[in-house]
Amino acid sequence: MTSLEDLRKINARCIHCRACQYAYSGEPDKEGETEEYTGMLQGCPAGLYYGWEGYFNSGKQWIARAFLNGEIEPSQEMLEVAEACTTCGMCETQCPNYIDTVHVTEELRAAIIEAGVEPLSKHKKFGEMVSDKELRNPYKEARSDRTKWAQEKHAEQIDKDVKIAYFVGCTGAYRQQHVADHTASILKKLGVDFTILSDEVCCGSPILRTGQKAVFHDVMEKNLELFNDFDLLLFSCAGCYKTIRNDYPRLSGKPLKFEARHTVEYVYDLLREGKLKIDKEYSKKITWHDPCHSVRHVGIAIEKEILKGSENWLLDSRKAEKAKMEHYEIPREVLKAIPGVELHEMYRIKGDSFCCGAGGGVKAQFPDMALSTSKERLKEAASTGADILMTSCPFCITNFNDGIKALQKEEEESGVDNSGVGSKLKVVELLEVLDELLE
After folding, report:
1. Across all residues in the chain, what is the average pLDDT?
2. Residue 267 shares a structural domain with residue 288
Protein backbone atom coordinates (compact mmCIF):
# COMPACT_ATOMS: atom_id res chain seq x y z
CA MET A 1 0.00 0.00 0.00
CA THR A 2 1.20 3.51 -0.78
CA SER A 3 2.25 6.04 1.85
CA LEU A 4 2.68 9.78 1.99
CA GLU A 5 6.44 9.36 1.58
CA ASP A 6 5.84 7.47 -1.69
CA LEU A 7 3.99 10.53 -2.97
CA ARG A 8 6.74 13.02 -2.05
CA LYS A 9 7.77 13.65 -5.67
CA ILE A 10 4.16 14.00 -6.77
CA ASN A 11 3.46 16.46 -3.96
CA ALA A 12 6.63 18.39 -4.89
CA ARG A 13 5.06 19.29 -8.25
CA CYS A 14 2.68 21.67 -6.45
CA ILE A 15 3.77 25.26 -7.17
CA HIS A 16 0.90 26.75 -5.15
CA CYS A 17 -0.68 28.36 -8.20
CA ARG A 18 -4.11 27.85 -6.59
CA ALA A 19 -5.74 26.76 -9.86
CA CYS A 20 -7.14 23.86 -7.83
CA GLN A 21 -9.42 26.23 -5.92
CA TYR A 22 -11.67 26.79 -8.92
CA ALA A 23 -13.99 25.15 -11.39
CA TYR A 24 -13.00 25.90 -15.01
CA SER A 25 -9.56 27.14 -13.93
CA GLY A 26 -8.43 26.86 -17.55
CA GLU A 27 -11.44 28.79 -18.87
CA PRO A 28 -11.52 32.21 -17.15
CA ASP A 29 -13.85 33.61 -19.81
CA LYS A 30 -16.39 30.78 -19.69
CA GLU A 31 -19.90 32.18 -19.89
CA GLY A 32 -22.94 30.84 -18.08
CA GLU A 33 -26.65 31.56 -18.33
CA THR A 34 -26.58 34.03 -15.44
CA GLU A 35 -24.14 36.46 -13.88
CA GLU A 36 -24.04 34.30 -10.74
CA TYR A 37 -22.84 31.24 -12.66
CA THR A 38 -20.14 32.39 -15.06
CA GLY A 39 -16.34 32.54 -15.23
CA MET A 40 -14.16 30.66 -12.73
CA LEU A 41 -16.19 29.82 -9.64
CA GLN A 42 -14.48 28.46 -6.55
CA GLY A 43 -15.08 24.74 -6.52
CA CYS A 44 -13.62 23.43 -3.24
CA PRO A 45 -16.38 22.64 -0.70
CA ALA A 46 -14.05 22.90 2.32
CA GLY A 47 -12.39 26.08 1.10
CA LEU A 48 -15.75 27.70 0.37
CA TYR A 49 -17.15 26.76 3.77
CA TYR A 50 -14.17 27.60 5.99
CA GLY A 51 -12.41 30.24 3.88
CA TRP A 52 -8.89 29.59 5.19
CA GLU A 53 -6.04 28.52 2.90
CA GLY A 54 -5.37 25.30 4.81
CA TYR A 55 -8.83 24.00 3.94
CA PHE A 56 -8.29 24.40 0.20
CA ASN A 57 -6.34 21.68 -1.59
CA SER A 58 -3.51 24.16 -2.23
CA GLY A 59 -3.11 24.52 1.53
CA LYS A 60 -3.34 20.79 2.16
CA GLN A 61 -0.58 20.12 -0.39
CA TRP A 62 1.71 22.47 1.51
CA ILE A 63 0.72 20.98 4.86
CA ALA A 64 1.69 17.59 3.44
CA ARG A 65 5.03 18.99 2.26
CA ALA A 66 5.75 20.56 5.65
CA PHE A 67 4.83 17.28 7.37
CA LEU A 68 7.15 15.31 5.07
CA ASN A 69 9.98 17.75 5.75
CA GLY A 70 9.51 17.59 9.52
CA GLU A 71 8.57 21.26 9.71
CA ILE A 72 5.30 20.67 11.59
CA GLU A 73 4.29 18.09 14.17
CA PRO A 74 1.15 15.98 13.70
CA SER A 75 -1.74 17.02 15.94
CA GLN A 76 -5.49 16.71 16.38
CA GLU A 77 -5.93 20.20 14.91
CA MET A 78 -3.90 19.25 11.86
CA LEU A 79 -6.00 16.12 11.35
CA GLU A 80 -9.23 18.13 11.61
CA VAL A 81 -8.08 20.39 8.77
CA ALA A 82 -6.94 17.43 6.66
CA GLU A 83 -10.21 15.55 7.24
CA ALA A 84 -12.39 18.53 6.27
CA CYS A 85 -12.36 17.54 2.61
CA THR A 86 -14.94 15.58 0.63
CA THR A 87 -12.14 14.11 -1.56
CA CYS A 88 -14.35 15.09 -4.51
CA GLY A 89 -11.41 15.47 -6.90
CA MET A 90 -12.39 18.88 -8.30
CA CYS A 91 -8.87 20.07 -7.41
CA GLU A 92 -7.32 17.19 -9.35
CA THR A 93 -9.29 18.10 -12.47
CA GLN A 94 -8.04 21.68 -12.30
CA CYS A 95 -4.37 20.92 -11.54
CA PRO A 96 -2.15 21.80 -14.55
CA ASN A 97 0.64 19.59 -13.16
CA TYR A 98 -1.43 16.39 -12.97
CA ILE A 99 -0.92 16.07 -9.20
CA ASP A 100 -2.77 13.19 -7.51
CA THR A 101 -4.20 15.65 -5.02
CA VAL A 102 -6.79 13.31 -3.49
CA HIS A 103 -4.25 10.54 -2.91
CA VAL A 104 -1.93 13.01 -1.18
CA THR A 105 -4.74 14.21 1.10
CA GLU A 106 -5.82 10.66 1.95
CA GLU A 107 -2.23 9.62 2.66
CA LEU A 108 -1.70 12.74 4.76
CA ARG A 109 -4.66 11.71 6.91
CA ALA A 110 -3.27 8.20 7.26
CA ALA A 111 0.22 9.49 8.10
CA ILE A 112 -1.13 11.73 10.87
CA ILE A 113 -3.05 8.80 12.37
CA GLU A 114 -0.07 6.46 12.02
CA ALA A 115 2.01 9.08 13.88
CA GLY A 116 -0.21 8.48 16.92
CA VAL A 117 -3.03 10.98 16.54
CA GLU A 118 -6.47 9.51 17.30
CA PRO A 119 -8.93 9.41 14.36
CA LEU A 120 -11.71 11.99 14.67
CA SER A 121 -14.61 10.74 16.81
CA LYS A 122 -17.13 9.80 14.10
CA HIS A 123 -14.43 8.39 11.84
CA LYS A 124 -13.07 6.26 14.67
CA LYS A 125 -16.55 4.78 15.10
CA PHE A 126 -16.55 3.96 11.36
CA GLY A 127 -13.38 1.96 11.83
CA GLU A 128 -14.67 0.16 14.90
CA MET A 129 -17.97 -0.80 13.29
CA VAL A 130 -16.44 -1.95 10.00
CA SER A 131 -13.86 -4.00 11.95
CA ASP A 132 -16.58 -5.66 14.05
CA LYS A 133 -17.21 -9.11 12.57
CA GLU A 134 -20.88 -8.91 13.61
CA LEU A 135 -21.40 -5.61 11.75
CA ARG A 136 -18.88 -4.97 8.93
CA ASN A 137 -20.62 -1.69 8.05
CA PRO A 138 -20.43 1.95 9.26
CA TYR A 139 -24.16 2.12 10.09
CA LYS A 140 -23.99 -0.25 13.08
CA GLU A 141 -26.48 -2.62 11.46
CA ALA A 142 -26.37 -6.40 11.93
CA ARG A 143 -24.33 -8.16 9.27
CA SER A 144 -27.03 -10.84 9.16
CA ASP A 145 -29.47 -8.18 7.89
CA ARG A 146 -27.33 -7.16 4.92
CA THR A 147 -29.59 -8.89 2.38
CA LYS A 148 -32.83 -8.38 4.30
CA TRP A 149 -33.96 -5.76 1.75
CA ALA A 150 -33.83 -8.43 -1.00
CA GLN A 151 -35.55 -11.29 0.79
CA GLU A 152 -39.08 -10.42 -0.30
CA LYS A 153 -38.62 -9.53 -4.00
CA HIS A 154 -35.21 -10.89 -4.93
CA ALA A 155 -34.67 -13.92 -2.69
CA GLU A 156 -33.77 -16.12 -5.68
CA GLN A 157 -30.73 -13.91 -6.41
CA ILE A 158 -29.14 -14.27 -2.96
CA ASP A 159 -25.96 -16.40 -3.00
CA LYS A 160 -26.73 -17.76 -6.44
CA ASP A 161 -23.95 -19.69 -8.22
CA VAL A 162 -23.36 -17.47 -11.27
CA LYS A 163 -20.57 -15.32 -12.71
CA ILE A 164 -22.10 -11.84 -12.34
CA ALA A 165 -22.60 -10.18 -8.94
CA TYR A 166 -24.34 -7.02 -7.80
CA PHE A 167 -22.22 -5.30 -5.13
CA VAL A 168 -24.90 -3.55 -3.09
CA GLY A 169 -22.81 -1.55 -0.61
CA CYS A 170 -23.72 -0.46 2.91
CA THR A 171 -25.84 2.57 2.02
CA GLY A 172 -27.96 0.57 -0.44
CA ALA A 173 -28.28 -2.38 1.95
CA TYR A 174 -29.16 -0.41 5.08
CA ARG A 175 -30.32 3.11 4.19
CA GLN A 176 -31.27 3.85 0.56
CA GLN A 177 -32.77 0.39 0.07
CA HIS A 178 -35.05 1.55 -2.74
CA VAL A 179 -31.90 2.12 -4.85
CA ALA A 180 -30.79 -1.48 -4.29
CA ASP A 181 -34.31 -2.74 -4.98
CA HIS A 182 -34.59 -0.84 -8.29
CA THR A 183 -31.10 -1.95 -9.36
CA ALA A 184 -31.92 -5.61 -8.78
CA SER A 185 -35.21 -5.12 -10.62
CA ILE A 186 -33.42 -3.48 -13.58
CA LEU A 187 -30.93 -6.32 -13.84
CA LYS A 188 -33.72 -8.91 -13.86
CA LYS A 189 -35.61 -7.01 -16.55
CA LEU A 190 -32.43 -6.91 -18.63
CA GLY A 191 -32.07 -10.67 -18.30
CA VAL A 192 -28.85 -10.50 -16.26
CA ASP A 193 -28.12 -13.74 -14.40
CA PHE A 194 -26.66 -12.24 -11.22
CA THR A 195 -26.27 -12.82 -7.53
CA ILE A 196 -26.25 -10.78 -4.33
CA LEU A 197 -23.77 -12.16 -1.80
CA SER A 198 -24.76 -12.24 1.85
CA ASP A 199 -21.05 -12.31 2.84
CA GLU A 200 -20.35 -8.94 1.21
CA VAL A 201 -18.73 -6.45 3.61
CA CYS A 202 -18.17 -2.69 3.47
CA CYS A 203 -16.10 -1.75 0.42
CA GLY A 204 -13.91 0.34 2.75
CA SER A 205 -14.46 3.72 1.11
CA PRO A 206 -15.28 5.67 4.31
CA ILE A 207 -12.36 3.96 6.04
CA LEU A 208 -9.82 4.66 3.31
CA ARG A 209 -10.96 8.29 2.92
CA THR A 210 -10.50 8.90 6.66
CA GLY A 211 -6.99 7.46 6.85
CA GLN A 212 -7.65 4.14 8.62
CA LYS A 213 -5.61 2.00 6.29
CA ALA A 214 -5.29 -1.15 8.39
CA VAL A 215 -9.08 -1.55 8.57
CA PHE A 216 -9.38 -0.77 4.87
CA HIS A 217 -6.80 -3.42 3.97
CA ASP A 218 -8.79 -5.97 5.98
CA VAL A 219 -12.11 -5.41 4.17
CA MET A 220 -10.40 -5.07 0.78
CA GLU A 221 -8.83 -8.51 1.19
CA LYS A 222 -12.17 -9.98 2.30
CA ASN A 223 -14.02 -8.59 -0.73
CA LEU A 224 -11.31 -9.58 -3.17
CA GLU A 225 -11.38 -13.12 -1.81
CA LEU A 226 -15.17 -13.13 -2.08
CA PHE A 227 -15.50 -11.73 -5.61
CA ASN A 228 -12.31 -12.79 -7.42
CA ASP A 229 -13.99 -15.72 -9.19
CA PHE A 230 -16.66 -13.53 -10.78
CA ASP A 231 -16.49 -12.16 -14.32
CA LEU A 232 -18.41 -8.95 -13.70
CA LEU A 233 -19.28 -6.81 -10.68
CA LEU A 234 -22.13 -4.31 -11.06
CA PHE A 235 -22.73 -1.34 -8.77
CA SER A 236 -25.39 1.21 -7.84
CA CYS A 237 -23.22 3.02 -5.28
CA ALA A 238 -20.77 5.48 -6.79
CA GLY A 239 -18.45 5.27 -3.77
CA CYS A 240 -18.26 1.46 -3.79
CA TYR A 241 -17.71 1.49 -7.54
CA LYS A 242 -14.82 3.96 -7.42
CA THR A 243 -13.22 2.25 -4.42
CA ILE A 244 -13.23 -1.22 -5.93
CA ARG A 245 -12.53 -0.13 -9.52
CA ASN A 246 -9.78 2.41 -8.77
CA ASP A 247 -8.45 1.91 -5.25
CA TYR A 248 -8.36 -1.88 -4.90
CA PRO A 249 -5.87 -2.45 -7.73
CA ARG A 250 -3.88 0.68 -6.80
CA LEU A 251 -3.49 -0.31 -3.16
CA SER A 252 -3.29 -4.10 -3.51
CA GLY A 253 -0.77 -3.85 -6.34
CA LYS A 254 -2.78 -6.41 -8.31
CA PRO A 255 -5.20 -5.92 -11.21
CA LEU A 256 -8.83 -6.86 -10.61
CA LYS A 257 -9.75 -10.33 -11.83
CA PHE A 258 -13.25 -9.13 -12.72
CA GLU A 259 -14.71 -6.26 -14.74
CA ALA A 260 -16.34 -3.48 -12.71
CA ARG A 261 -19.22 -1.41 -14.14
CA HIS A 262 -21.80 0.91 -12.67
CA THR A 263 -25.36 -0.09 -13.59
CA VAL A 264 -25.82 3.18 -15.52
CA GLU A 265 -22.73 2.26 -17.57
CA TYR A 266 -24.11 -1.24 -18.13
CA VAL A 267 -27.38 0.22 -19.46
CA TYR A 268 -25.33 2.55 -21.68
CA ASP A 269 -23.39 -0.45 -23.05
CA LEU A 270 -26.63 -2.16 -24.04
CA LEU A 271 -28.02 1.02 -25.64
CA ARG A 272 -24.83 1.56 -27.64
CA GLU A 273 -24.83 -2.06 -28.82
CA GLY A 274 -28.43 -1.77 -29.97
CA LYS A 275 -29.57 -4.40 -27.47
CA LEU A 276 -31.84 -2.05 -25.57
CA LYS A 277 -34.39 0.60 -26.54
CA ILE A 278 -36.40 2.64 -24.06
CA ASP A 279 -39.91 3.27 -25.40
CA LYS A 280 -41.76 4.69 -22.40
CA GLU A 281 -41.72 8.45 -21.97
CA TYR A 282 -40.43 10.39 -18.99
CA SER A 283 -41.64 13.89 -19.79
CA LYS A 284 -39.83 15.88 -17.15
CA LYS A 285 -37.59 18.93 -17.02
CA ILE A 286 -34.44 17.68 -15.28
CA THR A 287 -30.89 18.68 -14.45
CA TRP A 288 -28.16 16.10 -13.91
CA HIS A 289 -25.68 15.96 -11.01
CA ASP A 290 -22.44 14.07 -11.75
CA PRO A 291 -21.51 11.94 -8.70
CA CYS A 292 -17.84 12.65 -7.95
CA HIS A 293 -16.87 9.01 -7.50
CA SER A 294 -18.53 7.37 -10.49
CA VAL A 295 -18.02 10.22 -12.96
CA ARG A 296 -15.05 12.48 -12.17
CA HIS A 297 -12.87 9.97 -10.31
CA VAL A 298 -13.38 7.21 -12.86
CA GLY A 299 -12.80 9.67 -15.70
CA ILE A 300 -9.52 10.77 -14.13
CA ALA A 301 -8.53 7.12 -13.66
CA ILE A 302 -9.21 6.40 -17.34
CA GLU A 303 -6.99 9.35 -18.24
CA LYS A 304 -4.21 8.12 -15.94
CA GLU A 305 -4.43 4.58 -17.29
CA ILE A 306 -3.79 5.84 -20.81
CA LEU A 307 -0.97 8.19 -19.79
CA LYS A 308 0.78 5.66 -17.58
CA GLY A 309 4.05 4.76 -19.26
CA SER A 310 3.30 7.00 -22.25
CA GLU A 311 6.28 7.81 -24.47
CA ASN A 312 4.48 10.60 -26.30
CA TRP A 313 2.34 12.77 -24.03
CA LEU A 314 1.54 15.17 -26.87
CA LEU A 315 -0.41 12.47 -28.68
CA ASP A 316 -1.49 10.37 -25.74
CA SER A 317 -2.80 13.30 -23.67
CA ARG A 318 -5.29 14.05 -26.45
CA LYS A 319 -6.34 10.42 -26.54
CA ALA A 320 -6.66 10.37 -22.73
CA GLU A 321 -8.70 13.57 -22.68
CA LYS A 322 -11.04 12.18 -25.32
CA ALA A 323 -11.55 8.93 -23.40
CA LYS A 324 -12.19 10.83 -20.18
CA MET A 325 -14.75 13.08 -21.84
CA GLU A 326 -16.49 10.08 -23.39
CA HIS A 327 -16.86 8.65 -19.90
CA TYR A 328 -18.40 11.91 -18.68
CA GLU A 329 -20.99 11.66 -21.47
CA ILE A 330 -22.27 8.21 -20.43
CA PRO A 331 -25.12 9.31 -18.12
CA ARG A 332 -26.07 12.02 -20.60
CA GLU A 333 -26.29 9.48 -23.42
CA VAL A 334 -28.57 7.35 -21.25
CA LEU A 335 -30.77 10.38 -20.54
CA LYS A 336 -30.90 11.21 -24.26
CA ALA A 337 -32.20 7.69 -24.90
CA ILE A 338 -35.22 8.32 -22.66
CA PRO A 339 -38.16 9.80 -24.64
CA GLY A 340 -39.52 13.04 -23.23
CA VAL A 341 -36.54 13.99 -21.06
CA GLU A 342 -35.71 17.69 -21.20
CA LEU A 343 -32.15 18.08 -19.89
CA HIS A 344 -31.05 21.47 -18.55
CA GLU A 345 -27.39 21.36 -17.53
CA MET A 346 -26.02 23.18 -14.51
CA TYR A 347 -23.03 25.48 -14.94
CA ARG A 348 -20.51 23.22 -13.17
CA ILE A 349 -20.71 19.81 -14.84
CA LYS A 350 -18.68 16.72 -15.76
CA GLY A 351 -15.08 17.04 -14.49
CA ASP A 352 -15.92 20.50 -13.17
CA SER A 353 -19.05 19.37 -11.33
CA PHE A 354 -19.58 20.73 -7.82
CA CYS A 355 -19.73 18.08 -5.08
CA CYS A 356 -22.92 17.16 -3.17
CA GLY A 357 -20.91 17.58 0.04
CA ALA A 358 -21.31 14.13 1.60
CA GLY A 359 -18.12 12.23 0.76
CA GLY A 360 -14.73 11.72 2.38
CA GLY A 361 -16.19 11.22 5.86
CA VAL A 362 -17.48 14.81 5.87
CA LYS A 363 -21.21 14.13 6.34
CA ALA A 364 -20.59 12.27 9.59
CA GLN A 365 -17.84 14.45 11.10
CA PHE A 366 -18.65 17.87 9.60
CA PRO A 367 -22.45 17.85 9.06
CA ASP A 368 -22.74 21.63 8.80
CA MET A 369 -20.20 21.73 5.98
CA ALA A 370 -21.97 18.84 4.22
CA LEU A 371 -25.32 20.61 4.48
CA SER A 372 -23.93 23.95 3.30
CA THR A 373 -22.38 22.29 0.26
CA SER A 374 -25.62 20.46 -0.53
CA LYS A 375 -27.60 23.70 -0.41
CA GLU A 376 -25.11 25.43 -2.71
CA ARG A 377 -25.48 22.67 -5.31
CA LEU A 378 -29.28 22.59 -4.96
CA LYS A 379 -29.45 26.32 -5.67
CA GLU A 380 -27.30 25.80 -8.76
CA ALA A 381 -29.66 23.03 -9.86
CA ALA A 382 -32.71 25.24 -9.32
CA SER A 383 -31.13 28.03 -11.39
CA THR A 384 -31.57 25.86 -14.50
CA GLY A 385 -35.36 25.96 -14.18
CA ALA A 386 -35.51 22.17 -13.82
CA ASP A 387 -38.09 20.51 -11.59
CA ILE A 388 -35.97 17.44 -10.91
CA LEU A 389 -32.37 17.03 -9.80
CA MET A 390 -31.36 13.60 -11.05
CA THR A 391 -28.25 11.66 -10.09
CA SER A 392 -27.11 8.09 -9.51
CA CYS A 393 -25.51 7.78 -6.08
CA PRO A 394 -27.33 6.84 -2.86
CA PHE A 395 -25.06 9.10 -0.80
CA CYS A 396 -25.75 12.11 -3.04
CA ILE A 397 -29.47 11.36 -2.77
CA THR A 398 -29.22 11.32 1.04
CA ASN A 399 -27.36 14.62 1.32
CA PHE A 400 -29.48 16.42 -1.28
CA ASN A 401 -32.69 15.39 0.47
CA ASP A 402 -31.24 16.68 3.74
CA GLY A 403 -30.37 19.92 1.94
CA ILE A 404 -33.92 20.29 0.62
CA LYS A 405 -35.36 19.81 4.12
CA ALA A 406 -33.01 22.50 5.44
CA LEU A 407 -33.97 24.91 2.65
CA GLN A 408 -37.67 24.25 3.26
CA LYS A 409 -37.19 25.01 6.95
CA GLU A 410 -35.39 28.26 6.12
CA GLU A 411 -38.17 29.28 3.73
CA GLU A 412 -40.98 28.44 6.16
CA GLU A 413 -39.54 29.60 9.47
CA SER A 414 -37.22 32.48 8.61
CA GLY A 415 -38.71 33.80 5.40
CA VAL A 416 -35.37 33.33 3.65
CA ASP A 417 -35.69 33.72 -0.11
CA ASN A 418 -34.27 30.52 -1.58
CA SER A 419 -36.29 31.01 -4.78
CA GLY A 420 -38.51 28.15 -3.71
CA VAL A 421 -35.70 25.60 -4.07
CA GLY A 422 -36.83 23.63 -1.05
CA SER A 423 -40.45 23.41 -2.14
CA LYS A 424 -40.05 23.02 -5.91
CA LEU A 425 -37.00 20.83 -6.54
CA LYS A 426 -37.26 17.06 -6.24
CA VAL A 427 -34.28 14.69 -6.08
CA VAL A 428 -34.64 11.53 -8.17
CA GLU A 429 -32.34 8.52 -8.64
CA LEU A 430 -31.78 7.64 -12.32
CA LEU A 431 -31.82 3.91 -11.57
CA GLU A 432 -35.31 4.26 -10.10
CA VAL A 433 -36.51 5.95 -13.30
CA LEU A 434 -34.87 3.34 -15.53
CA ASP A 435 -36.57 0.57 -13.58
CA GLU A 436 -39.95 2.24 -14.13
CA LEU A 437 -39.32 2.66 -17.86
CA LEU A 438 -37.87 -0.74 -18.69
CA GLU A 439 -40.27 -3.52 -19.63
Report:
1. 96
2. no
